[in-house]
Amino acid sequence: MPTSPVVTRFAPSPTGYLHIGGARTALFNWLFARHHGGEFQLRIEDTDRARSTPEATAAILRGMDWLGLDHDGEVVSQFERAPRHAEVAHQMLDAGHAYKCFSTQDEIATFREAARAESKSTLFLSPWRDADAASQPDAPYVIRMKAPRTGQTVIEDQVQGRVKFENNLLDDMICLRSDGTPTYMLAVVVDDHDMGVTHVIRGDDHLNNAARQTLVYSAMDWDVPVWAHIPLIHGPDGKKLSKRHGALGVEEYQAMGYPACAMRNYLARLGWSHGDDEFFTTKQAIDWFDLGGIGKSPSRFDFKKLDNISGQHIAATGDTDLLGQIETYLSAVGQPALTDEQKTVMLRGMYCLKERAKTFPLLLDKAEFILASRPIQPDEKAAKLLDNVSRGILKQLTPSLQDVSWTRDTLEQVATKVAEANDAKFGKIAGPLRAALAGRTATPSVFDMMLVLGREETIARLTDAIG
Question: What pTM did the predictor assign?
Fold first, then answer.
């Protein structure tokens, strides 16, 4: 258990949608903070003005909101903090931990070409690192970190273990550009320090950055956060997840009709485990989550597993709550809202609708008999079942339904009796009943439909079908 209050952060770049990898990183940070009763903060790393867009920021916020990953405090804009980043760069300069470098891009390119020609390291060694201030020209300069040239920088990572970096392979990174704007490497450290971040949980593609960022912490005599670099998500083929593997943006999964609770469950299991538990609630995830449960190997995204978990969540959700989620889904994808009557009947039928439904569209497809309005228009396959013989049998059945008690047992007895009177088994009239009640051949059980629709609507639909 951490001794100081836990503060985590999610820091996406607003250059596109909130992708699945980013969503999982946000989720891990959120779960860890909530587990320890700490803070989860959100920072938008919008220093790349050419690629950052308000639309992308809005998409990220929508994705976070849909996933239910609430953040503490105001959203921090990295771009707006540029003066603070520059201030720290000059503090390091004044303390002798950084220096002014006047080397031009052409000089650096010439240095690297010569190094390549001599098969030497192309790591740029600035001639200005130890230059006398009196020799400095009146010209544009960058502020470079004065990195150690010997020894090692060691990262004690909660996922990767102890990782060592040889200091002679770390360059004197630029902290402040010649136009006075800060670099990403400096800005991240300053922001994390000022926001009080205690644990940096992020993708392992940032592991190398941790070594260079540690040097900034050391130069400023700041506490280094706890590092936890999590493996990336791969596709089913074992390659880094990309567009060829299907949907990548969180909002695409919302549009496909996965419940947010199912996405949280599935994303948590992508790289983290709690024993053999596959299906769990968000409360359980918060109670259980720790960094020790994160594996070192990349996890593989599997739509079949997501579908399975999604179906379990739909089945386990209370009917009223589930109806609310369906209404939110319909609004998100621009479909018409449910009428009050449809909502009433949907609630009545939820017991048979959510059975084996993996997503909201599949559940709504099962609910088509509720959502359709009279007269029911049978599709081509169903229409073939309503021949003259079948209509005749339905005509015999309809009067029998007028006064019987509206229970499953009674309805089964009445339907079976009519079938037997026509020298047939009940299966013979099940198809025509489906066609009459729902206009299709794949539906919930005919008795479930009759119970959900009620006596009046059932008889009305049968009467329409008889013609």
Answer: 0.93
